[in-house]
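Re: duplicated header lines in exported structure tokens

Our pipeline writes sequence and tokens for each protein into one text file. With two proteins the header for the second block appears twice in some exports. Here is an export where it did not happen, for reference. First protein block:
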Amino acid sequence: MYSRFHNLVVFFAVKTAVVLVILFTAIAVEYRPAVIPARSTDLTGWQTNTSKTLIFIDELTDAGPGKDDIPAITAPEFELPFDVLRWLPDREPVISVRLGKTTKAYPLQILIWHEIINDRIEGVPIAVTFCPLSYSVSVFKRTVKGRRLTFGVSGMLRNSGMIMYDKQTETLWQQFTGRALVGDMAGHKLEQIPAQLISFGQFTQSCKKSKVLSRKTGYHRPYGENPYIGYDDASSLPVMFKGDVIALLPPMEKVIAVAVGGRAVAYPSFLTSSRGVINDEISGVSVAVFHNDGAVSALDRQWIRNSRPTGSTAVFLRTLGSHRLTFAYDGKYFIDMQTRSVWTITGKAIQGPLTGKQLTPINHKNCFAFAWLVFNPKTKIYK
């Protein structure tokens, strides 16, 4: 039988209101000035070096499942887009990752049950990760100082965010930030790779010859079913959250968030979805935030394919060669005002003088507001 740990945790927490949530308006601090001693060293069954830590061990929350009870995938198989049409509807969300000339799609209907995919693209070891409780997508390079790591799901949370661990040293890592918190690798940070959360239909339109993660994972799970029914709700509260919620937005409101040059900006999804595009400047860098119709939520209805639409998002540089572009939205595509070229949600020009050109993606988050703000408390909320 497949594991129902996640479903039980969320159902119990939400339906019975036994939710470990602390609501304060104080500012949370993500990084401490130096490595500090732990208050507790009790990580039974772990080989983690707890003498090296950036946090107090009691900041970690036991989420219910134990180590590897949510099994990360270490030998992923892939199929062509045409071959997955029988089980992957156009509206379902996928993580689109591009390295070099290769692009792959990782459906959330699979990530929601495994949370980590250890993969390679063009020979580069990567980890594609999704934390349902924060709705955080993070894609990292798995090599740190020449050492290739393989990641698993620890079964622990911090600030209602997944704690990963590497199987080589059993160091504990924060999935949201890529920062090693406890163990031999404490203080190191994984290099993040830009990724997009878009619909499968949009992915196939832009990447017809690319590959899609297969359901042939070696595990029996009800792929396509959502074990967190109703969790994507802006009026609700995060579960198992010990941090401080900063009262700038409802904690479960979705944001598209970016940090550039030490300055962070969060764009509320209700604003980006109504405007379609926002042209902005962050630390002197010209950026464009795209949001159009496309993907549905992975955490709404029992079956993801029946969930409400939340759209697809992206953040790109607005500079392209000698051009500094300003974008408008026509209800489907993005039009730059300088050349009148037409652009897709994936940042590719399909009509006009710039046809074939590709915008440069920027690392960003499309996540619940509480998750971004607890790690970036000085964030400006775009209005």
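Second protein block, exported in the same file:
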Amino acid sequence: MPFKGNYNKSGGSQKQRQSSDLRPGNTHFHPNSYSNAKPKPQAPKAPVQVEEKQFGLITSPDNDKARFIRNLLGKKDRYAARHFVAEGVRLVGEALRAPRPPMYTLYDPDALVKTEDGQRLLMRLIELHEDKKGVFPATARIMEGLSDTVSPQGVTAAVPFLQWKPEDLAASKLHLILDEVQDPGNLGTILRSAWAAGDTSIYLTEGSVDFYSPKVVRAGMGAHFKVPAALGQVWPQIAENLATAGVEQILLADSGEEDIPVSKGKTLPEVSYYEVDWSKPTAVIIGNEAHGARAEARRSATHVLRIPMPGGAESLNASVAASLVIFEALRQRTQSGAEK
């Protein structure tokens, strides 16, 4: 059936008709003309490869930097490398301000732009990346593999173990000795309280929860970088450190009503935490959540520190007891300073 339309009405040769249909602005249809046809889609020019070459985008889980950070999630590799994982906007921000910067920092720009804090950190990370300071962008898939959380924030760093000197610990007025405390949340909360109040050092005995565990680091929310801490301590070491700090009163925190035996036939004198003179250098022992302080810790104490509980509860969570002590000490120090 012959085609009916402008093709048969335009007149002239076929070549002239095609030329006329190709003129700019011509909207008449011609079966041999492509003026109204949509251009064929072209294959993309591999933008990821261009970005990877230009900006150092990490896309492979076998990348040495990604693998190094991922291995730090395990305790054995963490202590072999003497680095730990700081994950999230706040923690990485604190890590970047620490005296010893992270070895590697990986970030997902698309994740960081979702929040104002993330955007501010992203600008800093881009500067460090351009300055070749061990900072690299990575895909969302890579970042998920480096995360120990359900909802990664898109930034992770490999941070050197912290190095506190004996004089850093000795400068504090309050010294908290955590004797085989096991719960990561308890340790993280104690660290945050110590950071908030200031003037507090932490001593972890052998057998305590790992100070650099990802759960402890997250719970501490940056306190690791602020609170002087001594790890893997045995009691002769602790006694030496406390003597250097001028500590004379060593209090064994307890909220129960029963006497705490030090040795056969001997119990420690008691003191309420309201009655302690916290302006003096003081050490407080916080025992294991289930079993309390060990015999060696009890023998080192000079008094049992009682925290009143008139409501009748049997005991307090370790982090709650430690926080009460920390802020009572702060209250006294603040009041004493105001009176001078």
